[in-house]
Amino acid sequence: MAPSVTHVTGTVAGGVEVRFTQDGIAVCRFRLTETPTQWDATAQKWRDLEPIPYICTAWRDLASNAAESLVDGVSVLAKGRITGVKDDSIYLSVDDLGISLRRRIAYTETSLPSPIAARPYTAPPAPQPATAAPSPARPGSPPAWWEQRRSANWS
After folding, report:
1. Do the Cβ atoms of 76 and 32 come closer than 8 Å?
2. CA pair distance 76, 25, nearest whole angstrom
3. What is the arithmetic mean of pLDDT over 4-23?
4. Does residue 3 register a pLDDT over 70?
5. Do 3 and 82 form a contact (C-beta atoms < 8 A)?
6. Among 36, 43, 70, 140, which one is least packed by beta carbons within 10 Å?
7. Which pLDDT score is estimated for 2?
């Protein structure tokens, strides 16, 4: 019977170790901690359950990309096969891996912002209020531009 595929959402705990086989194939290993939650109806809130530790192994390009992309504390989504349970940890052979976008933005090589986007932004100077010509003191009199045009014979 083939091992079943499972999906795990967790947080990388510690660094990613990368090694190479004698044939030059990359293999990486990292720890992943999944903290399941459960709704507590009496308290009317979610509560964390016991964390589930995973020891994940990835191969070839996935291993190289994981080593370049993953750091301690990053939330990831992993798809893989459970290969064993030992010392209270679940061993997972990872087939696919992704960064969770729940709490962060992830950039890919093609979606990186341009260097111009990193330039400090300086706001344009605030417009200064125009100085109006002194208006006549009587309320209801025409505005100053009216008097200027009238005195210039409306040209």
Report:
1. yes
2. 23
3. 93
4. no
5. yes
6. 140
7. 65
CA distances from 79 to 3, 5, 56, 134 (A): 13, 7, 10, 75
* Run of H or E including 82: strand 75-86
CA-based nearest residue to 28, from 38, 44, 9, 15: 15
CA 96 to chain CA centroid, nearest Å:
19
* Distance separating alpha carbons of residues 32 and 30, to the nearest angstrom: 7
Q: Between the CA of residue 94 and those of 66, 97, 119, 125, 142, what are the distances in Å?
A: 11, 7, 39, 54, 80
Q: At residue 71, what is the residue type? A: V
CB 78 within 8 A of CB 10: yes
Residues 6 or more apart whose Cβ sits within 8 Å of residue 35: 10, 11, 48, 49, 51, 52
Phi, psi (rounded to 5 degrees) for 51 = -65, 145
- Which of 12, 25, 1, 15 minimizes the C-alpha distance to 92? 12
Read off φ and ψ for residue 152, nearest 5 degrees.
-90, 15
